[in-house]
Amino acid sequence: MVLELMKTHASVRDYEDKQLTREEVAELIEAAQHAASSHFVQAYSVVWVTDEKKRQQLAELSKNPKQMLGAGAVFLICVDYNRLKHAGELNGVDISFDYAENMLVGVTDAGLFAQNLALAAESQGYGICYIGGVRNNIEAISELTELPEGVFPVYGLTVGVPATRNEVKPRLPVEAILHENAYDEDKYEEILPAYDETIQAYYGSRSANQKSDTWTAQMASFLSKPRRPHIREFLAKKGFLFK
Hints:
Strand content: 5-15%
Largest sheet: 4 strands, antiparallel
Pfam families: Nitroreductase
Structural class: alpha+beta
Low-confidence stretches: none
Number of domains: 2
Organism: Planococcus lenghuensis
Mean pLDDT: 96
Shape: globular
CATH topology of the largest domain: NADH Oxidase
Strand order of the largest sheet: 1-2-4-3
Helix content: 40-55%
Number of strands: 4
CATH superfamily of the largest domain: NADH Oxidase
CATH class of the largest domain: Alpha Beta
Keywords: Flavoprotein, FMN, NADP, Oxidoreductase
GO molecular function: oxidoreductase activity
Protein name: Nitroreductase A
């Protein structure tokens, strides 16, 4: 049953007017916390934005008003080394988190926690949507939610009762992702054109926002120009120096 639930995931951007209760949120967060964590550092925190004024500002700054204002709960998923700094202080130690490895650990921990939270929510009949748009104005959003040194937002996550559901978008075939014993890039010459046909057929037949496009064309356009170049300087201000 869990496998089938995972295979039916689609982002939800249109929610019913029902807010999650504190009990419901606490249950989802507790379940999400049981995600794996490198060396058990648990280098993540989540900010639940309930204040209406802050939620409005978050919607504007992330450029995602429909999801942020319509969802049943709005979460800001963060990498967090501030709590670990306090743990060090309790033991008379100044911890260091300004190495690239710490960044990888923190982002991985936050991602595993977020995906656990998403799966927990979907298992209860809710819909979810990740909001990478919080990185559009990452410094302003950090100030809005009073994030200290060692803490930064990775993405937002909206949860709510779906008013409408989108069709499941076809993923790359397993053989494109799975390599046995060694990485094989030669297979992409055959796999990617076939996948483009699948995606083009999906875009042309879905119930809303029909268009003619392919996956490779989208990726070529998306990755051919810099994305959010302000992130590196912001992370340095938060203490992440990539040593």
